[in-house]
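Comment thread on ticket #2218

A.B. wrote:
> Attaching the input chain for the structure job we discussed in standup.
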Amino acid sequence: MAEFDYDLFVIGAGSGGVRAARVSAAFGANVAIAEEHKVGGTCVIRGCVPKKLLVYGAHFAEDLKDAQKFGWQLSEQPSFDWPTLRDNVLKEVDRINGAYTDTLNSHDVEIYHERATISGPNEVTLASGETKSAKYILVATGAWPHIPEFPGSKHAISSNEVFHLDTLPKRVLIAGAGYIANEFAGIFNKLGSKVTLINRSDVILRQYDQSIRDRLLQISMMKGIEFRFNAQFENIERNDDGSLEVRMSNHDPITVDQVLIATGRVPKTDGLGLESAGVELDDGGAIVVDEYSKSNVDSVYAVGDVTNRVQLTPVAIREGNAFAETVFNDTPTTVDYGCIPSAVFSHPPLAAVGLTEGEARNQLGSIKVYQSDFRAMKDVLAERNERALYKMVTDADTDRVVGLHMIGPDAPEILQAAAVAIKAKLTKADFDNVVALHPTMAEELVLLR
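C.D. wrote:
> Ran it. Output below, let me know if you need it in another format.
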């Protein structure tokens, strides 16, 4: 008889957990996975996928207006129906959930649609009370929205609930200054809501280059989004008409219909039973792992946001794949966390890879910066007064491109290919030697001066 019920038991069927389970099974491991919600995890169910679909939906507000400058005459005033967009997005989420489930089934991964906790170094306990043993346990439970405690915080929602709103709020207050806050600010603004964004500091998207984030702030304000900086919640009270009265430090009270808190996400380790196996956590509740995603307990591994290394879906997928290669294919594999591209699907979107100008100056000392500040051809004809900004940072001594930052239409789509060049350590001269693809916005990358 086998010593354990499974070779691998995965807790959490998000992007990282599903990849680890599927690839491990392909290598011949006997694998089970437990998920208390839908298969697919944060990105597919309540994150980047449904949010990007909302971004597409919101952008039609500008596209329909711009179309008139291109000769399209609309026979009647366009109107927007929130339930239609919401329900179609959730329908797509269900489809992807089914696809993920089919992938696991096709690889003979046993799925437990219930919560699982760790009850020992080689044992998990299901919500039903049943226990299962495994040679290895992989924790891939991701992260969860952080909701600060203050009077009336129960009246606010997180990014988990925002996809299920019954009605589109006419007035919405968003707390935060990162990806989620700025993306939903753009979505609600384009769908017709009055948006106010508050933040406890005076900086948005701190990890991005200052020129790019300043440009987003400028354009967002032009679009009518109000920013209140150096503001912290004091309390939220519900009025008799259902609206919310929000009081905050350093600013006047504001009445809104919805409050969305997007102040970050924390590793989802509470109540997981990690102490039963002696697994070490850091001060933020994340599982401490080595370069092979192994915790201080030899049989327990962790990948994705629960480790708080880099909270990005593609990174979790790579970590899941590397885990399977290391443990079940006898091929020790690590993930390279250098030069990871990222994007914010704001209005307009921004994208970046490599060092910001400030980081480059601190690390390299002598640098050269090249910029292109321009209006996209489509925006010129549409008489839309928004300027794109592309910025390249190079090492002055070697001419190597160490950072690329951009804001403007389709910036994330353009940056993906350009990130390959940065990762390959190409020089500014290598960019200059490429013939421009005209007329495109992307050609600015090989014309920077």
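A.B. wrote:
> Thanks. Noting for the ticket: The longest helix spans residues 82-106.
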